[in-house]
Amino acid sequence: MGKTLFKDIFREIKKSFSRFIAILAIIAIGITFFVGIKMTCPDMKITADQYFKDNRLMDFYLVSSVGFNKEDIESIKKVDGIKGIMPSYSIDAMIDIEDTSYVVKINSLPNTNDENYINRPLLVSGRLPTTTGECVIEKSNFKENNFEIGSKIKLTSGNSSNILDNVSTDEFIVVGIVQSPLYISKERGTSVIGNGKISTFMIIQESDFKLPVYNGIYITASNSEGSFAYTDEYDNKIESLRKSLEDVATVRSNIRYEDIKLEANIIIQNKESELKTAQANFANVSKYLTLNQKNDSTQEFATAEKEIQDAKDKIGSLPKVTWHVLDRKMNVGYVEYENAADRMDAISKVFPIIFVLVAILICFTSIGRLVDEQRIYIGTMKALGYRKRFIVLKYLIYASFASIIGGIIGILIGFTAFPSFFANAYSALYTLPKLILQFDNTFAILVMIAAVLVTSLSAITVCYETLMQNTASLMVVKAPKPGKIILLERIPFIWNRLKFTHKVTARNLFRYKSRFFMTVVGVAGCTALLLVGFALKDSIGTIGTKQFGEIYTYQMSVNTKDGLSKSEYENISNLISNIPNYEAKLNLLLKSIDIGLGSKESSCNIIVPEDTKGINDYITLHDRVSQQKYILSDNEVILTEKLANVIGAKIGDDIYIKNGEKDKYKVKVSGITENYLLHYLYMSPKLYENLYLIKPEYNQIDVKLTALEDSQKDIISKSIVSSKGVASVTFSNDMLKTFVEMINTVNYVVLILIVAAALLSFIVLYTLTNINISERIREIATIKVLGFYEKEVSSYVYRENLILTLIGSLFGLILGFYLAKFVIGTAEVEMLMFGREIYPMSFVISVLLTLVFAWFVNVVLLKKIKNINMVEALKTVE
Amino acid sequence: MNKFIEFSDIKKTYKVGDIEIHAVNGVTFSIDKGEFVIIAGPSGAGKSTVLNILGGMDASDGGNFFVNEKEVSKLNQKELTTYRRNDIGFVFQFYNLVQNLNALENVELATEICKKSFDPKTILEQVGLIDRLYNFPSQLSGGEQQRVSIARALAKNPKLLLCDEPTGALDYTTGKSILKLLQDTCRTTGMTVIVITHNLAITPMADKVIKMKNGKVESITINETPTPVERIEW
Question: Which of A785, A792, A865, A876 to mutate to test the interface with B (most CBs of B within 10 A)?
Answer without folding.
Answer: A785
